[in-house]
Amino acid sequence: MMEALNELAVSTAKKLGVDDAVALTSQGNERMVRFANNSLTVTKNMKETELFVYLGKDNRRIVAATSNPDESSIRAFVKKLFESLQSLPKGSDYASLPERARHYRPSQMSYDKKVEAVGTELSELAGEAIESARKNGGERSAGAVVASVGTSSILTSSGTSGHDRGASITLNIRSFSQDDASGHGLSCASRLSGFDPVEAGRRAGENAKKMVGAKEPEAGEYEVLMSPTVASNLVDLIGGFSSAFSVEAGISYLVDKLGKKVASESFSLSDHGRMDGALDGRVFDDEGLPTGTTPIITKGVLENYLHNLTTAKKAGKASTGNAGTISPHPWNLEVGRGDSSYDEMVKSMKRGVILTSNWYTRFKNYRTGEFSTVPRDGAYLVEDGRITQGLKGLRVSDSLERIFSSTRLISKNREWIEWWEVDTPTLCPWVLVDGVKITRAYE
Length: 443
Hints:
Oligomer: single chain
């Protein structure tokens, strides 16, 4: 079905006389179980098919999507898109699709048939997380378990074709021991064998229990130890800022910094189209080019922006295989492994704060990377290497470049993170940063 939709869209575009055309059909199958107050509340099975069409002619280009797979509707959709294309201004930066045709086969790296087949087991997995949280101090819990399988198929006017598929299973659980004492846990995996709802529930329950009696902090600068959940939120933002589109638009703190130091030597960041254990990605991008591994920051130095054909042409570079429907974007981010353990990092802290979860990350200035974020669900004061107090009502206000330039230690252990605060799947360690500005959230 997917190949037939692509063939119909591209053949219709060719008859209209386009110079370039891409049809990309994506099909998702998602099973979800939600729970609240320790009970299952919603079970859903959602299937969705979407067709993205890109057209180019006479240095003009346009892209749009439809979720109507009817044959006559697709023909009409492509014709209307072509009519709209002709009214657009010509662009001097137009980049033609490669003439060489490529043919792709599915990667087996991130596809587990057991995830695709999972059904009633989702409810059992949710129950395991809830029970684990309860045993460890979380009196009531809420969250969701989601099993996703995605398939993508591409066809271009130059003959490039292929398809790819991937699977993932994720759990997000938030537990409470009192109304204002909460903890959070995640488990994210591309294979059912790597999924651990018991551990996620344990973390949520333990953090909720330790937050009883939490107090507001004194404003000041602290050493901050960010969990993979918190650090990946900031790393995901770096991935977005490394898009050449963001750089061109002037909404990135990485403008004019290629080859320059933007982080400490201990910090490296790469993007992968496909890698073992990754939760997302494809072997081809939206323009039909192969994806791969792109080092973004290597030992603190900004090495590459992420490009599609258009941004690469402007920069005199080659595409990095990161074309999205509109702009370049990361597929799967990986932070380089450190050499410290969690216990070693805590013991090294004189006056610090441990953050296990956060939300509401917002920017004061995109160009400088100045942001604030609100920690929740487990934040702890550390004095002379010991956790002494739960903290609530705090806010972190800093800049991305200063945070990662002041990174002191990175853990050996890394975890895959993807949830509503982290759009791009990220393999992330614990990160210890010096001199982070912390204030009370409600001042």
